[in-house]
Write a structure and sequence with these properties.
2 domains; 471 residues; 4 strands; 16 helices; MetI-like fold; mainly alpha
């Protein structure tokens, strides 16, 4: 494994060094030509260096990516053919296990159990070494071709700046296309598996059912006459209690986070001095860097017992794992997002609007309420939307503080569960991937995606209709 890492690092270092060397060689060439011809180069000298470096670096990166995704599968496929020939009586179910063992032996993690596996590991290791050498030589050849092609074109008349900017424009477009295709791929994968789930479970039962128990089903039997139900095997997939728990926890989190985050943003943007602002704002943003599992421990060990003891003190029955504890701690976690984004939005409001309001006799409070906040409303909606999305998608805090019971309730003092918690539970452990229980996680995922999308559309519509435009 050390040899493989050293080889990859050597190839990477050599590629970077070649790009840097080509950068300075191109600059030296264009300077000499400009002096010899007593003329001025079309572009700044660094653009000529970037032009040649791109021709050295980009083809090498593309080739390395192709090699990475193509070479290893081909080598493992050939090793699999040799392994089948070496173990003709090996069952198909053990073949993948043997292949994993062969890869670990070739990498040096474990020792070979027999001479046959040792020989196959030596063959695989030799093939990998040959592939590494071929990769290095091919990369060197590609970089040399790219260098000599670009280097010969370097001259003061070359529009290097235009070419570099054209490359960057195509790179940015490609990045946008990759981002869009990634989103489409995620949605398509969720939708494909959700369709498989809905072939087994009715849409009405899923979206309007009030009982969520994917491990067992409820079916009527002879005991139904006595109001008893017997556990079946297909599961009960009514998502209403799960979605209700998600919205309840998110609502509690927003009730905690929005006022504190917005008021702190107004203070730091409008009232605090520069010295106080430089202390308060970074202190609030420290909360954003705390891992969610730490918030989960805080919710389970501190917040939940506090709310339970407080409920006992006032005569209320508070669950040891309540939506109130999970939502409250989640709200604390979301405060930095709302505060930081709202502060930036409020600060971006032109000072001329404030000066105009003061000139008309408005107080500072009236200026903030009637001028600054309406002008910043679209940005504030975006901050709140980000906070809602973070609250809906949070998992760890709810697992540790709110529990996993899918209770049909809107009482914040009781235990609830959320969509993300159920997805984690359904997709972890020794579960069959093709079972209805596992496929229900994708149905929950696509439902959560649609709800988030609708929230985005509603927020954008509201910000466009209610947000005032200022020049």
């Amino acid at each position: 494994m050390t040899d493989i890492f050293a080889s990859d690092f050597l190839v990477f270092a050599a590629t970077i060094m070649a790009a840097i060397l080509s950068f300075y060689l191109a600059i030296g060439r264009v300077q000499k030509q400009a002096v010899a011809a007593d003329t001025k180069a079309h572009s700044l000298k660094q653009y000529y260096g970037f032009y040649v470096s791109l021709w050295v670096l980009v083809p090498a990166i593309l080739l390395a990516l192709i090699w990475m995704f193509a070479a290893d599968p081909m080598l493992m496929s050939a090793a699999k053919v040799r392994l089948v020939a070496a173990y003709p009586k090996l069952p198909e179910s053990f073949l993948n296990l043997k292949m994993a063992q062969l890869g670990n032996i070739a990498a040096g993690y474990i020792t070979a159990p027999d001479a046959v596996m040792a020989a196959q590991a030596d063959l695989l290791r030799a093939a990998q070494d040959t592939a590494d050498r071929a990769r290095g030589l091919t990369l060197a050849a590609v970089m040399c071709v790219g260098f000599f092609y670009a280097f010969r074109r370097v001259s003061p008349e070359l529009r290097a700046r235009v070419l570099c900017e054209s490359f960057l424009r195509r790179l940015f477009f490609l990045s946008a296309v990759v981002a869009i295709l990634t989103t489409v791929g995620i949605v398509a994968s969720l939708l494909f598996e959700a369709v498989r789930f809905f072939r087994e479970i009715s849409l009405v039962d899923f979206f309007f059912g009030t009982h969520w128990s994917p491990m067992t089903a409820l079916r009527g039997g002879e005991a139904a006459a006595s109001d008893e139900f017997v556990a079946g095997s297909t599961g009960s997939f009514g998502m209403v209690p799960v979605m209700a728990g998600t919205l309840l926890v998110a609502l509690i989190a927003m009730i905690v986070a929005v006022p504190i985050g917005l008021f702190s943003a107004i203070y730091t943007a409008e009232f605090a001095s520069r010295r106080v602002r430089n202390i308060v704002k970074p202190t609030l943003e420290v909360l954003a860097g705390v891992p969610t599992v730490v918030y989960g421990f805080f919710a389970a060990l501190t917040a939940a017992p506090f709310f339970r003891d407080l409920g006992l003190f006032v005569g209320l029955d508070v669950s040891s794992q309540s939506a109130l504890a999970a939502g409250g701690v989640m709200g604390i976690m979301i405060i930095p997002f709302i505060s930081s984004l709202s502060d930036d939005v409020i600060t971006a409001v032109p000072q001329s609007l404030r000066d105009g309001a003061y000139g008309l006799g408005s107080t500072r409070g009236e200026t903030i309420i009637r001028v600054v906040l309406p002008a910043a409303f679209p940005g504030l909606v975006g901050a709140f939307l980000l906070a809602i999305s973070r609250a809906i998608g949070e998992t760890m805090i709810v697992v540790m503080a709110a529990g996993v019971a899918a209770n049909m309730t809107i009482n914040p003092l009781e235990s609830v569960t959320t969509v993300t918690v159920q997805i984690v539970m359904l997709l972890t452990g020794d579960n069959e991937f093709d079972s209805v229980k596992t496929l229900s996680a994708f149905a929950l995922g696509i439902t959560l995606f649609v709800i988030t999308l609708l929230l985005n559309i509603a927020a954008l519509t509201a910000s466009r209709r209610l947000g005032q435009r200022y020049d």
